[in-house]
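Why run this: before we spend reagent on co-expression, it is cheaper to look at a predicted model of the complex and decide which construct boundaries make sense. The entries below are exactly what would go into the expression plan.
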Amino acid sequence: MADFQIYQSYQRLLKNEDLSTPLAAILALTEMMKQSNAGTMFELLNELKGNAEALSRHSSNPIGLNAGCELFIEFITLFPHDAASFSELKTELIRQGQQYAGQALAYRAKIAELAFDFIKDDSILTHSYSRVVLQTLLMAHKRKRISVFVTEARPRGMGIKTAEMLMAAGIPCTVVLDSAVAYAIDKVDFVLMGSEAVVESGGLVNAVGSNQIAIIAKAANKPFYALAESYKFHRMFPLSQYDLPSHNPGVLSFPQTPSARAHPASSGLSSESSSILSDNGSPIKITQEDIARNNPDVDYTRPDLISLVFSDVGSLTPEGVSQYLVGMFAG
Amino acid sequence: MASDPQSAANQRIVEDLVSRLRRRQLVGSRATALETLLVLRQVVSKTRFSNLDQLVNVIQSVGRRLVEAQPKEHSVGNTVRKVLHHIREEYHTASEQPIVESSFSIAKFVLQGQPRKQATIPRSETRVPLKENDSNDPDSFARVLKPVLMEAIQDVFDELETVYDNISKNAKDHIHSDEIILTLGMSRTVQSFLKSAAHYRNYTVIVAETAPSYGGREMAASLSSAGISTFLVPDSSIYALMSRVNKVILGAHAILANGGMFATSGSLLAATAARSYSTPVVVCAGQFKLTPLWNLYHEYGALDFGDPNAVLGFEEGDLVNKVDVVNPYYDYVRPELLDVFITNYGDHPPSSIYRLLKETYDDEDNEL
Amino acid sequence: MPQAGPKYEPASAEAQSLTKAQKRAEGRARQEQQRAAKAAQKQQPQSGLGAPGTTGSSSSKSKGTVPKKPVSESNKTPSAAASSSKDAPTTLREGAGGLDGLSDGPKSRGLRIFSHFGLPKTPGHQIKGDIHPAIVKLGLQFSEFKICGANARCIATLTAFKMVIQDYVTPPHNTLSRHLMTHLSPQITHLVTARPMSVTMGNAIRQLKLEISGSDIDLPEQDAKDALCQKIDNYIRDRIIIADEVIEDLAVKKIKDEDVVLTYARSSLVEKIILRAHSLNKRFSVIVVDSRPLLEGKALLHSLTSTVPPIPCTYALLPALPSLITDADIVLLGAHSLHANGSVYSRAGTAMVAMLAKEHTVPVMLCCETYKFSETVMLDGFGKNELAPTKFSPASPKSNSNLEVLNPLYDSTPASCITAVVTEVGLIPPTSISSIPLALGRTTL
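The model came back. Tokens follow.
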């Protein structure tokens, strides 16, 4: 029961467009704390850890919220416990959590300022939908002349949303097929990418397709910049693509039996293939939903492909990120 | 703030340096750093201040004026930042209050992930309590602090004066017998490095001329008169000879926060050629060249341009009208092309320059 | 140096015996040189750059002159050898002022490894034997660098040879086809002493020898000579002039309007291509990158800006290249020769232009006629190179015994940096050059 509640409140908080997953996780935890009846610090921490795990279990892509939960729990562990009573302490912690979430909303503007120094009258390539990238581009548009290429970011097509918002602001913008990035890269001056999490190695976890774009940018000698708020720094070290927590063996697996599907393909793209019959006579039809389900949501970009990470704590080289993380969690 | 006659005196010496910088009567990283330090010493000694912020503001404004006079001489700004860093350190050790954490919040917690500054040895034995903003005795604060600050500035002076010696200390460990070293242009740091190694080792140096300043000729003459067997070659043969070169040693004009550097024009050619032969590229530079700025390399205009007459002079006749001449003074070299920086405080790979910067300067001074 | 008098082999009338005689003559010449060299070396153990080991001014008529040179203060021939060897006997200095054991004797290892480059040549070298005045004049022009560039040298050589052939009279009891080559050999050697032979000259001369040995014995002498001259003209016309035109046609298609073309030093072919593109009313601009020692780019600038309307040009020296390469859309380069592994032997500095262009993904087009192809494999710019004469060196303030000035003229660009090679048979990747003869049904290019 308690599990279900926390996930519900998390979902509810996410409805606020401005909140990103780590912040929503922190706020969800504070809400849980309000209702908790733990008597000691030890019990409270256990509850928090249990709830964090529950959250991550329910979500298919738990990386962002893991980062937020870990940060909050680490903070609580290190917080000086010298308040008069436990309930006062709890109130203080809840207040801290909410205050941070409020402050953190201003981080995007800070990052936009930092990144702005690197932008001249350039062509920029970006991927999918990222609020911090959007804010940076809108700010840059006010003072410089930029043009933007946005990748479509199938299967969810979030890139189209980005393009629409940019065009509404008057920025020259066009949508590029995911497969046409290598074709377009020579027209671009640099690549700007948001992030779901920045990991211990200095690498980036972001919507699937980011790794591809980073490799192409490296091959074409174009700089690749990642924008990440500091609460997205996550103490995880993936050794490969398949080492991510969002990975499950079902991804990119070969379907066993061709099953007959009668409903048409979704997202407006019709797969008008002629019905190909399998051995047992049932027609084989692959729908967009099947593809979306069978493909990964996020991928991991290696640190040697990233030129700089812009964060509210400053511009960092990928090596600099790990120094921060060690300082936070081991210092 | 400071009373008028003193600030006028300050103005004069600052204006003098500003005009010299603007007219390029003062050129070269070490020379400008030394001059800046002299001016700052005067300013600190003559300024009246009753709390730390006043002094910091004065120095920051002086620094701003100097940097604006000649933005391409980064060592000016670096020296100002270094002095500010020392001032804050001295203040914190001298005053009895510890650094107060105003509040403990998650944001601060994240920032604590910053590399910690190294603890300094407290200079003042007698801990006279510092009274800030004392209305009875406005100078007490300054009186206590000034001698300590003067010592700190003297330390920076000493560092600047002994730069060449410290860098050359370990030269013989970096150069071995019968090696062939490639260098280019005229850099006093590299020159002293190579000469010091020549006392212990027998090796050969190839110097590229580095058109159009032809600083390489001066370097070659100086090295050969010190007994080092030297070859003077034009820039076009750098790649042709690279297959026989064991090491490339370059000087730097400024070291940037990402580990890259500004260096004399031609360095990027040498570094790229060296990379294709996997030859190590070594940079000799004093730590006063560390610049906490990132984005300079993006601006084409951040490169300085020299006199086009050196490239295509008026003796070419009417060509001069019909042709654009480009003569950039500096190159930006990416950190991936460099292997190590030999500084007066040890050897560092480009990836740790960022950490070094955080330790040497304070964040609030990055934008003067 | 034995004069190659008419060597008459009555018995065997095949081509082989004559080439044997020719080889013998060359071998004898070589031995003389080496003997002179050894004598010279004994005289001056510490000469600079291993001078006596190479062909050059030191192997003059008699061995006696060589030891005199260091002692004499004759500054009429300001060769680097003279000045450095002047120092040598007088100051028995050590290798390079070091303390770890290389005390006496030869130069440090560093200076020795450049010794195979050969001396910068002195102008006004000796004339050995009966050299045709056209060849003498040509030799002088070569050594003064008045004629510079692979194509120019080849055409000049062949033109001079035409005059030699016309003036040639077959001695009695000889046939033209056998004797002419031996007559030409000393002329060729004379040219080589002025400047090392270019691959183009080598290929052309080899073709000429083939033609000579294949000429009909029964033809009257004047007809045979005319036929040979005609063949030479055809060679120049087909392999150089017309080939250039075909290359221009192909290359011009790759230059589009609003392009920025970057080129290095001065290649006759690239100059022609640019002028042709301009005459086709394409609107583009040119960046000329130049470098010492020859600073040939200035001459290219003159010719490009003399067009009407003048082509917009930018000029810079080699160290400025990284700032300019980002603006370039295409890089056009010329070559001295192209080798079997695809590497390009070309003016010093070309390798760096190609390397930087590749890093910035700017396509590099090499313009080269097929007669420049050489069967050898070139590994790096060190194996074979040439030094510019001292007149191109800066004035050294003092003749410092530790300071040597080197001006290598060539370097070798690896095939990976070249995007495409434009030849008269079409655009090919650089590594395919060795399969062209087969494709054309010939055994060699």
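Chain C has two domains: 13-25+126-243, 253-440. Confidence is low (pLDDT under 50) at residues 1-17, 45-106 of chain C. Bring this page to Monday's planning discussion.
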